[in-house]
Design goal:
By secondary structure, the chain is α/β, with parallel strands linked by helices. It has seven helices and nine strands. The strands form two sheets. It has a seven-stranded mixed β-sheet with strand order 1-9-8-7-4-3-2, with no helix packed on it. A two-stranded antiparallel sheet has the order 5-6.
């Protein structure tokens, strides 16, 4: 197994001459020139684009042309119901990028560690509330909760999930990570020929020490090696489910940075995201 470390950089979204100037300048930093055409082996450095937010951009033809011309690897973040809202098929997004660069690697964004409680994700929200956990807690579901039963949140209107095996499986033997994977299989991942399965918050530990994962009445410390092992076990099980039952040919890529670790900031205060890909 080879591990490829990448730094993803912003790509201009306008289809103009300035785009080429930007990429040419970027390539000059390593004494390379921007290639006018792409083959199976593009010159280094290879550029990756990780596009979060602004979901309308994936329906913009100029943006897709720019991604195809200048990005060797693109991670797209499309939510359930996106096709209906923007009247564009996911397969058309992938086809437009590869029309410019047939060798482009394209992946889908995934996050099993947290979920916004919105109607786009209603089937997953319902599953999180309906899940039953073992242990003495009054609230028996798949949300991450404090010892007092409150849901844990790191972002506004987004709540963390309990992905550990301390939760009881549903009637089909699945816990939340498997339910999530099956849901996205139908809503996104099976709709186009993607290369990658990108998993956010893939680092070795949980992001905070607020959650009572095993429902024993006390919060579990993220730095505790035993607690960290629970997360690694959950992520490993999630990847194996996707690999065995859904997409055996796809590669996996994870955001493996430590949550707001000061060592990941450079001297100007910019945050560098470390990404690893299972080749």
């Amino acid at each position: 197994m080879a591990i490829l470390w990448l730094v993803l950089v912003p790509i201009p979204v306008a289809d103009s001459a300035e785009d080429g100037d930007f990429v040419a300048h970027l390539m000059s930093l390593t004494q390379q020139k921007a290639a006018k055409s792409r083959g199976k082996e593009p010159a280094f450095p290879r550029i990756g684009a990780h596009l979060l937010g602004r979901h309308a951009q994936f329906a913009d033809s100029a943006t897709l042309r720019t991604l195809g011309r200048y990005s060797d690897l693109t991670i797209i973040n499309i939510y359930p119901g996106w096709e209906q809202r923007y009247r564009t098929k996911v397969s058309e997004v992938v086809r437009a990028i590869r029309a410019e660069n047939p060798a482009a690697m394209i992946g889908t964004y995934h996050n099993i560690s947290e979920l916004p409680e919105t109607r786009n994700f209603q089937p997953l929200v319902d599953a999180l509330y309906d899940g039953k956990t073992v242990g003495p807690a009054d609230t028996r579901d798949w949300w991450a909760r404090t010892p007092n039963g409150e849901r844990v949140s790191d972002w506004l209107k987004t709540y963390n999930t309990n992905i550990t095996k301390f939760t009881a499986p549903d009637s089909r033997g699945r816990r939340y990570p498997e339910v999530y994977a099956d849901f996205y299989d139908a809503e996104l991942d099976s709709k186009a020929d993607f290369d990658l399965y990108y998993i956010d918050i893939f680092g070795p530990t949980f992001r905070n020490s607020k959650t009572d994962f095993n429902r024993d009445g006390s919060a579990d410390a993220a730095a505790d090696p035993a607690v960290a092992a629970w997360k690694r076990e959950a992520m490993r099980g999630f990847v194996e489910h996707v690999r065995r039952k859904l997409f055996p040919e796809r590669k996996f890529m994870g955001n493996a940075t430590t949550w707001f670790d000061v060592r990941h900031f450079n001297s100007t205060g910019d945050f560098w995201t470390g990404l690893s890909m299972n080749m």
